[in-house]
Design a protein that fits this description.
The complex is a heterodimer of chains A (308) and B (492). With 308 residues, chain A is an alpha/beta fold. Helices cover 27% and strands 32% of the residues of chain A. Chain A has 2 domains: 2-118 and 250-307, FAD/NAD(P)-binding domain (3-Layer(bba) Sandwich); 121-247, FAD/NAD(P)-binding domain. Chain A contains 6 helices and 20 strands. The longest helix of chain A has 28 residues, at 280-307. Chain A is elongated and about 60 Å long. Chain B is an alpha+beta fold and 492 residues long. Chain B folds into 3 domains: 3-44 and 151-220 and 315-373, FAD/NAD(P)-binding domain; 80-148 and 223-311, D-Amino Acid Oxidase, Chain A, domain 2, CATH 3.30.9.10; 392-473, BFD-like [2Fe-2S]-binding domain (Arc Repressor Mutant, subunit A, Orthogonal Bundle), CATH 1.10.10. Chain B is 29% helix and 25% strand. In chain B, a hairpin with a 2-residue loop joins strand 18 (304-321) and strand 19. The chains are: A alpha/beta (308), B alpha+beta (492).
């Protein structure tokens, strides 16, 4: 059975940083990424604002990913792209599956979980009405638009005024779609000031604060949504053919369930599966720290064994 | 123009089983479905329960078919390669009125021949199901109650019918029916089809289809039902199917741990707006949440991943009053199978336990057709066994590794929530899926906690490649459900 010192689950910013750091400390590292390409969510981020801390440069997410992938290529990390970690077990083993690698077990000494987060789908929200075509999570829409060149819709309502919602609002507007409104439950918009300025001052996208989407209309495709104004209780119907949900990210930690709580000391979480970060630079930093810690623990084990 | 022995109208779970049993009699059968795929109507939104037969009075067709179906459901699912679980059910009461209902159902069930029924005290019920509220005063335990995925069962029956010679014609909604000598003719967008007999399994629309050839006698009025689905990671999930009999008269809560490992809460019950109104309402979902909090107080509803609406085909006898038809006050309780014209049968408003009895109803109507058409012997070549799709997740390590070596697509995980591979999606497409939800209903993609936001694009790309259709033209499920919204208006 294959063995490594450190198994890193996830090849986004956190996982790549962790793998690099652990390998640079001398650990043997396997990095498993379920997609065929490394980078996680970064390659679909074509907007700027990445790397100001790490690289002192204002990069797009895709550019940031390219730099990190290049750094990773200079290390002896064994990269398994297109390979999914199906399960991890208390006996320091994992089950993996990939089209090229087949099904195999791997043993490891330290585990770095860098599996990112997932978006909350509309089904999890208290939104009633129909479930027509034309409802996407913002990240799903971003991938379709930026990586596959698709057009998700014409007239779009975005639920959630955080960064992801605002990034998509700008981009869809520039692509010729009409963003009918960004709907934000809070009394303020949580997105970064530059995104707010671009959306609401430069592009003139309507922002509805203290409001939420309560109902979806349309039998084939979305035809409208009901927006409720939380302070007055008043409702209005906004015609649209697409609803994007950008309302919260959930860390992906289901893989750890078989390990119980509290987690064993050989498990290290980093990146958005640990907590959702606002910028990628802190993800990278946390990934590096996790990689170091994992490698350090192996060193300590070595030392303890040699002292015995 | 090809002439068939029998036309089955409607490709829901009932139509698929009717077709299956007609091929069992060796009839040259065609199944006409109005939509682009099978099992897209009421079959796709159902409580997924295989009932025991405690709920209906002795001596009715419903009771006879239900008890028989429950007894043989393992065999049926083994033949069709469909997952089936028999967790058993607890019908729980929280007071004297509900307790009397339990006792009545126990007597009725015993009279109907339902095995293993047992009345439990509140403490015994809570020992079996620790998440139940302390208010529980008693429970009727029915070890035979099971659960099956309704669309998996229907699609399996459709595949088995096709494998035994039934021709399945999609996008063939019937617009007119005519009788021509000994034959019936059905006009559709796909042409005119002729046959000696017709079996109408059009679900919500069965009354309208029957009225193409007969005076109204039964009309179907839609009722609304709503559900919540909780993720398979939810703590304190009950292991049994629960029926809550409320102390106040009216609808209680039903909870089903499904074969996929999810928890299904519902249905609510309300009047439906029309036969195409699949929407959910705040009232319905609040009903489910309120009852769940009372019956299963520990259950974490923040683990909800989906809510959906369903439509019930409620049949009512109607009678003429002047120019219009007026319905009777109460809906028809028994299964309604009519034969208004020679060699023309209709299933009208088959509700609970219609899923349980689908195979039995198919067998029953095929028997009527066989008798009418003078068919004495079933088809000896009929093969009741369907080759099921591979469910990679359930294979042993060795079998799975070998399968991936043979076909690497079974190594590529496409839907991570359900651990479903590209190979399984390709198999679903080969078995007839043409939409995103068609793949979902066959392979199980998009049923998990991300609700397809990660895999939908990948499934669509495979559908596009395999069917040679641009992604822009692909639909989620049914007419007007174009997945991408831009190109159809020429605005790119």
């Amino acid at each position: 059975m294959e063995h490594c010192d450190v198994l890193v689950v996830g090849g986004g910013a956190a996982g790549m940083a962790a793998a690099c750091a652990a390998a640079n400390c001398g650990a043997t590292v396997v990095l498993a990424e379920r997609e065929d390409a490394l980078g996680g969510v970064l390659p679909q981020c074509l907007h700027h604002g990445f790397g100001l801390v790490q690289f002192g440069a204002d990069l797009t997410g895709a550019e940031y990913a390219r730099r990190v992938v290049a750094e990773l290529a200079d290390t002896p990390v064994r990269i398994l792209a297109g390979t999914t970690v199906l399960s991890v077990h208390p006996d320091h083993s994992a089950l993996l599956s990939g089209a090229k690698t087949g099904l195999f077990r791997l043993t490891f000494r330290q585990l770095v979980l860098a599996s990112g987060c997932r978006e909350t789908p509309v089904g999890a929200l208290p939104v009633v009405g129909t479930r027509p075509a034309g409802i996407f999570t913002a990240g799903e829409a971003q991938r379709l638009v930026n990586l596959e060149g698709r057009r998700v819709g014409n007239t779009i309502v975005i639920l959630g005024g955080g960064d992801i919602g605002l990034v998509m609002a700008q981009q869809l507007t520039r692509n010729g779609c009409r963003v009918a409104a960004v709907v934000e439950q809070r009394a303020f918009c949580g997105g970064q000031p530059r995104h707010q300025k671009a959306c609401f001052e430069q592009l003139g996208i309507p922002l509805l604060l203290r409001a939420t989407v309560t109902e979806v209309h349309g039998r084939g495709r979305v035809s409208a949504v009901t927006v409720r104004h939380l302070d007055t209780g008043a409702e209005e119907i906004l015609p649209c053919d697409t609803l994007l949900t950008a309302v919260g990210l959930v860390p992906e930690r289901e893989l750890l369930r078989p390990l119980g709580t509290p987690l064993p000391g050989w498990v290290h979480l980093c990146g958005n599966c640990e907590h959702v970060h606002r910028i990628v630079d802190t993800v990278t930093a946390q990934g590096e720290a996790a990689g170091h810690t994992a490698a350090l623990q192996i060193g300590q084990t070595f030392n303890a064994q040699s002292e015995l | 123009m090809e002439r068939y022995d029998v036309l089955v109208l409607g490709g829901g779970v009932l139509g698929c089983f009717a077709a299956r049993h007609l091929t069992r009699w060796g009839f040259h059968t065609a199944l006409l479905e109005g939509r682009e795929d099978l099992c897209t109507g009421t079959t796709r939104a159902n409580t997924a329960i295989v009932y025991t037969g405690c709920d209906t009075p002795p001596g009715t067709l419903k009771t006879r078919l239900c008890v028989e179906a429950n007894r043989t459901f393992d065999d049926l699912c083994a033949q069709l390669g469909v997952p089936f679980a028999r967790p058993g059910s607890l019908m729980v009461s929280c007071g004297p009125r509900a307790q009397r209902v339990l006792e009545r159902k126990l007597r009725q069930g015993q009279e109907n021949g339902v095995p293993g029924l047992r009345l439990l005290s509140g403490a015994e019920a809570r020992a079996m199901e620790p998440g139940l509220t302390e208010e529980v005063t008693g429970a009727l335990y029915a070890p035979g109650t099971g659960t099956v995925n309704p669309w998996e069962l229907g699609l399996a029956a459709g595949e088995n019918a096709a494998a035994n010679g039934c021709t399945i014609i999609l996008n063939a909604q019937v617009t007119a029916l005519f009788s021509d000598g000994p034959d019936w003719g059905a006009e559709t967008a796909r042409g005119t089809f002729r046959a000696r007999a017709v079996v109408n399994c059009c679900g919500l629309y069965a009354d309208q289809v029957q009225e193409l050839v007969a005076e109204p006698s039964v009309r179907i009025f839609p009722g609304k039902a709503e559900y919540l689905v909780l993720d398979d990671t939810v703590d304190h999930a009950p292991r049994h199917i629960l029926f809550h009999e409320p102390e106040e008269k009216g609808k209680g809560l039903t909870v089903v741990p499904t074969v996929e490992g999810k928890l299904l809460l519902g249905p609510s019950e309300g009047p439906g707006a029309d036969k195409d109104d699949w929407s959910t309402t705040a009232r319905g979902l609040d009903f489910l949440r309120t009852w769940t909090a009372r019956v299963l107080p520990e259950l974490d509803l923040s683990q909800t991943i989906r809510s959906f609406g369903a439509i019930r085909p409620n049949p009512f006898y109607v009678y003429p009053e002047g120019e219009t038809w007026v319905r009777e006050e109460k809906s028809i309780h028994n299964f309604t199978i009519q034969n208004p014209r020679p060699r023309f049968w209709s299933f009208l408003g088959i509700k609970t336990p219609g899923l349980t009895c689908a195979d039995g109803l198919g067998r029953y109507v095929a028997g009527l057709v066989a008798e009418e058409l003078g068919r004495k012997e079933p088809n000896p070549a009929f093969d009741p066994v369907r080759t099921p799709p591979v469910r990679v997740k359930e294979l042993s390590f060795e079998a799975r590794a070998a399968l991936i070596r043979q076909n690497p697509a079974y190594g590529k995980i496409l839907c991570r929530c359900g651990e479903i591979t590209e190979g399984e999606v390709l198999d679903a497409i080969a078995r007839g899926a043409v939409t995103l939800d068609g793949v979902k209903r066959r392979a199980g993609t998009g049923l998990g906690r991300c609700q397809g936001s990660v895999c939908a694009g990948k499934v669509m790309a495979l559908l596009s490649r395999e069917l040679k259709v641009p992604v822009e033209n692909l639909r989620r499920d049914g007419p007007g459900t174009n997945w991408l919204g831009g190109n159809d208006r020429g605005t790119l």
